[in-house]
Amino acid sequence: MKITVTVNGEAFAREVEPRLLLVHLLRDELGLTGTHWGCDTSNCGACAVWLDGVPVKSCTVLAVMADGKEVRTVEGLERDGVLDPVQQGFSECHGLQCGFCTPGMMMVSRWLLDRVPDPSEGEIREALSGQICRCTGYENIVRSVRWAADHPAGNEVTS
Amino acid sequence: MTVHETTGTQDRHHGFGRVPRKEDARFIRGKGNYVDDIKLPGMLYGAVLRSPHAHARLVSVDTTAAEAHPQVKAVITGETLAGLDLAWMPTLSGDVQAVLATDKVRFQGQEVAFVVAENHYAARDALELIDVDYEALPPVVDARRALDEDVPVIRDDLEGRTGNHIFDWEAGDAAHAERVFAESDVVVAQDVLYPRVHPAPLETCGIVADMDKVTGKLTVHTTTQAPHAHRTVYALVAGLPEHKIRVVSPDIGGGFGNKVGIYPGYVCAIVGSIVTGRPVKWMEDRSENLMTTSFARDYHMRGEIAATRDGRIRGIRVKVLADHGAFNGTAQPTKFPAGFFHVFTGSYDIEAAHCAVTGVYTNKAPGGVAYACSFRITEAAYLVERLIDMLALELDADPAELRLRNLVRPEQFPYSTATGWEYDSGDYPRTLRHAMDIAGYDKLRAEQAERRREGTGSLMGIGISFFTEAVGAGPRKHMDILGLGMADGAELRVHPTGKAVLRISVQTQGQGHETTFAQIVAHELGLPVDDVEVVHGDTDQTPFGLGTYGSRSTPVSGAATAVVARKVKERARIVAGAMLEASPDDLEWSPGRWSVRGDPGTGVSMQEIAMAAHGSVELPEGVEGHLDATTVYNPPNLTYPFGAYIAVVEVDPGTGKVSVRRFVAVDDCGVRINPMIVEGQVHGGLADGVGMALMQVMAFDEDGNHLGASFMDYLLPTSMECPSWELGETVTPSPHHPLGAKGVGESATVGSPAAIVNAVVDALRPYGVRHADMPLTPANVWRVIQGRPFRTDLAIP
Predict the structure, then answer these.
(1) Residues of chain B with C-beta less than 8 angstroms from the C-beta of A99
(2) Is the pLDDT reported for residue A143 higher than 70?
């Protein structure tokens, strides 16, 4: 099938098998390997991206379902060479170790902060409850999101 | 949460302290380079056909239809591999494991065939086209039945094998323990199961194998925690010359022990690349990861503890039935088939101890030492901490007081245990008291008493765990894996402009080596951390060493780094002497500078020394130019980090649901190089403890079907089950580590499950519950209290 998907503001037209997963379109066809694959069953959230502004788990979305839609991935968090405060927060607060869950975590965190700019710890934990991290015990991830909430313009000097 | 700042240097630029991680810049941009991100020109994709049976005879494997698939490039079976003498490979425990089955399948998910195709969808399609004829055999699922006479022999491939027994192993003095038990006032005994679990790193295991037929060089990019050991094993298994093998471990999405071993898929991908002449990628899916790669634990323990009536612990002994699965593939030092389980006397001064461990085969996946266990210390720490709580219940003693009464005292270090360990340093009572202070232990007990008097609603439980770890394997004369001694190399070069490159044998799966190891060099040489680049995870670029697991990076490779930096510093002293026209003996060091003693103004900086070392300054006779050094560090002993953990839980008696309300963790891992990273390591291990104590388990039905083969069935803790961790620290330096540091990566995984289980059992005390096995899921907790009335006499002592 022929599909056109806008990813991080750039339109891509591709001929794809109907069964191709969105995560594989992004990673294998478009070379955007920042989105990871972790479980096949929508449990871990390593593959979370935005589809028309809403986080989805791209391992259980078919690429054809993204036809005519806008996808935002971790590669689209940085704008004009400036890191998103969420990206800065994860680095400032040691919100990542192996880095494998990090892109999905950050995509959901950005989505949360766009809706709830000043979230409580409970709201952060609930928003991230579909994202599994095996390294951090979540503590510093929660703090990273809080850091981003406290620094809506980020740091003046990006890392 | 509370963080008690570490004492010592907090300099962000010249050494130890909370230096932000160098690794983060790529990860937060989605620019990591994991194995599955690697795409080589002409790369093909592999997929493994796996057995649906736990035990079956392999009658035939028909690959005709798969080979006819237009996008399939090769189909490899056990027969193909047998022709290359590669159907079996050695395990890390001196057993053999089938790469692809030739005679029988011995666990559900075992590898039967390997397809190489143009893309992974086609490879998966082709698996469906392979026709395998199995003749089902009765499986041995329950380890407790594995030694019965009427069960099938799983390993009939091994000559002369008449049963499923693998080994018997003992430590301690059985006769002495018998005497002490016979004369003790109180003996408490309990069957304790540490269930089979899986480390489940978020990234599954995989490889990109690339055999260059022209140069004869094999390059593998693979998820390995031990690249050098893998290179040697590939050389020994496949007969490839070792200098023509390059193992690259790029960014790794978590290891936790899951990525120590060599899996059949790796060997198949290498063969696939040799056969097709093209690079072959193979990545597991999640079910493959959970069903077939290294599990952990599966220890059936019978523990006994003996004490005087007034609470002095005198003896501990344990019998273990160890389920090793279908192939004995545990990863541990050769001399220790039960790993370091014999550290089960824990943190206590106990005169008599004995353990006897029996390993058996079952029709389950191989493995056994994985998941941040420090070679079975997880099981040992859990056992002793459960027994202490049961003893406290028996003696009607406070579990904290009972521990304080029996902990090894500070003046007893170095302390020799009844099973042969020499603990290097510690002040255990101080650490436990610190944890009790942070938790507000007395207030918590008062709250609990008050709520028990009220007798309604949620049940409050308080659980303590005090653990001692033995990490940093290890001294070469005692410790090797497959004959490879557990020493690690380091190489350090300082370039002419004073910028340094450190090459280490260990690699990171998230532990932050690129930062921590740069900090060690910066600390030793007085260089900015940013001026030190750490090279790791590539056997062509780094010195030999055994890799990152068992919390050994800082104890072994961190020590190697300190030693090699000190060698460079001494070389710099000679160069500085030549520059200053002074005897090197007359120079003194201040961070980053050598100067004439008493005249700091005349000194030369490391940067100036580096340029001079590469320049034309005349050096003393016999002194070579340049500024570099190498070393191999053979640790004199393990390091013994320890900690005191306190969990507070709430149990809903109506549903059995457990909530972790608070968790206090005071760790003592000696000197902390980067406290931020240490705390992160502890946080992660605590979450593991919540997972194992409350939800994670690899269960099987009676046919050997795996019941936890996806994240829908194998539950992992999320942000909702984890509390906000409350950390504290004490610092007792290791006397033999050059930096005074100890390992910490696994401490929290080792120490935390017991605290949570002890807390849940404490919550259930009014029901007369003395013990409950993990995982304490709502259903399991609910079952434990059925038929047991809430007894006011137990609730209000």
Answers:
(1) 23-24, 26-28, 32, 251, 253, 510
(2) yes
Distance CA B164, CA B523 (A): 53
Burial class (CB in 10 A: 0-12, 13-18, 19+), B118: middle
Interface residue B288 vs chain A (CB under 8 A): no
What is the length of chain B?
Answer: 797
**Domain assignment present for A157:** no
Probe site for chain A from B27, B39, B44 (most A CB atoms < 10 A): B27
Q: Which domain holds residue A53?
A: 2-75
Among the candidates A75, A106, A132, a domain finishes at A75
Beta bridge partners of B728: B666
Check whether residue A71 and residue A107 sit in a common domain.
no
Integer Cα distance of B377 and B339 in angstroms:
8
CB contact under 8 A, A136 and B23: no
Are A20 and B121 an interchain contact pair (Cβ–Cβ within 8 Å)?
yes
Q: What integer is the mean pLDDT of B408-422?
A: 98
A30 touches chain B (CB under 8 A): no
How many Å apart are CA B73 and CA B116, to the nearest integer? Answer: 5
- Name the band, by pLDDT with cuts 50, 70 and 90, for residue B415: very high
> B284 touching A, CB under 8 A?
no
> Alpha helix (H) ranges present in A17-138?
22-24, 85-92, 102-115, 121-127
What is the structure's pLDDT at B455? Answer: 84
Mean pLDDT calculated for residue range B48-75: 98
Give the pLDDT confidence of B442-481 residue by residue, as tens digits: 999 999 999 999 887 999 999 999 999 999 999 999 999 9
**Joined tokens for residue B182:** 């016979």
pLDDT of residue B7: 35
Please give the torsion angle defined by the CA atoms of residues B413, B418, B421 and B424, in that order, rounded to the nearest 10 degrees: -10
Are B202 and A38 a contacting pair at CB < 8 A? yes
In whole numbers, what is the pLDDT of chain B averaged over residues?
Answer: 96
* Interchain pair A35, B30: CB under 8 A: yes
How much is the pLDDT for B674? 98
Residue B369: its pLDDT value, please? 82
- What are φ and ψ of residue A6, in 5° steps? -95, 120
Kindly determine whether residue A137 and residue B256, on different chains, have CB atoms separated by under 8 Å.
no
Q: pLDDT for B656-708, tens place per residue?
A: 999 999 999 999 999 999 999 999 999 999 999 999 999 999 999 999 999 99
Residue A35 lies in a domain: yes
**In this predicted structure, what is the pLDDT of residue B622?**
87
**pLDDT in the model for residue B793:** 81
| ipTM computed for the complex | 0.98
> Is the same domain home to A89 and A68?
no
- Calculate how close chain B gets to A8, using CA atoms only, in Å: 13
Mutant choice from A138, A141, A145, A157 vs B, greatest count of B C-beta within 10 A: A138
State whether residue A132 sits within 8 Å of chain B by CB: yes
Which residues in chain A touch residue B254, judged by CB atoms under 8 angstroms apart?
97-98, 100, 134-135
What DSSP string describes B577-626?
Answer: HHHHTS-GGGEEEETTEEEETTEEEEEEEHHHHHHHHTTTPPPPTT--SS
> Are residues A59 and A36 part of one domain?
yes
pTM of the model: 0.97
Residue B231 half-sphere exposure toward CB, CA atoms < 13 A: 28
Give the pLDDT of residue B578.
Answer: 96
Residue B13, pLDDT score = 52
Q: How many domains does chain A have?
A: 2
Domain boundary among A75, A110, A129: A75
Q: Is B1 on the interface with A (CB under 8 A)?
A: yes
